[in-house]
Write a structure and sequence with these properties.
This protein is of the alpha/beta class. It has a single domain, classed as Beta Polymerase, domain 2. The chain has five helices and nine strands; from the N terminus they run ααββαβαβββαβββ. The strands form three sheets. Strands 1-2-5-4-3 form a five-stranded mixed beta sheet. It has a two-stranded parallel sheet with strand order 6-7. Strand 8 and strand 9 form a beta hairpin. The longest helix has 14 residues. The chain is globular and about 70 Å long.
């Protein structure tokens, strides 16, 4: 005969587990207490995926902390990607609603605590506003090994340089490819080594 657990015990266990989980406001406050508001620059909760914004130069310190702190233990980098906030059509720019910039987005998960987190860093589209000079952010590949290929893909397609990456080179496009295809102002080449592109 299979025994069915007492419903009150199941409810008590669930409430105990939920009380241990940290929500994004708790995590944000913990990070502000640890690093201050110059490093932890924003909390955005009105989005479907709420996020915490971190100053680019501090991303390595913050990610090392959230991976190793017992209250957080974000031991898994689920995804890392880049987003280009730019509207190339001059007629649509007034309604676009964003200043041109690039974001690096980090999706994290804790297997121990069963909670997730989204971190973002904002970068200029071009380093020091010099068109063609790629923006830079420290690599987190020393924190999570899986960041290695994520950062290479983001470098290749979005044109973000990850400082101190162990092997920062293209991963999808050939090494001699010009430009970064997921940039909103990317101009697809007419041809590549004699092969017509458009």
């Amino acid at each position: 005969m299979v025994s069915i657990p007492d419903q009150s015990k199941r409810t008590d266990n669930l409430q105990r587990i939920e009380s241990l989980l940290m929500n994004i406001e708790d995590i944000h406050q913990l990070l502000v207490d640890q690093f201050g508001t110059d490093v932890v620059t924003a909390l955005v909760t009105e989005s479907k995926d709420p996020w915490i914004e971190v100053a680019p130069e501090s991303i390595q310190d913050v990610t090392a902390f959230i991976k190793n702190d017992d209250r957080l233990r974000f031991d898994h980098l689920t995804n890392l990607c880049g987003v280009d906030y730019f509207e190339p059509d001059a007629k649509k720019q007034a309604k676009f609603g964003h200043d041109p910039h690039i974001e690096v987005v980090y999706h994290l998960y804790s297997y121990n605590h069963k909670h997730s987190l989204v971190l973002k860093v904002k970068l200029p589209r071009w380093k020091d506003d010099n068109e063609g000079e790629l923006p830079e952010v420290p690599s987190v590949s020393s924190i999570w090994a899986s960041a290695d290929w994520h950062e290479r893909e983001t470098y290749d397609l979005m044109g973000i340089r990850f400082l101190n990456h162990p092997n920062l080179r293209r991963i999808l496009c050939p090494e001699d490819w010009e430009g970064h295809p997921l940039r909103k102002d990317y101009d697809f080449p007419l041809e590549y080594h004699g092969i017509r592109g458009r």
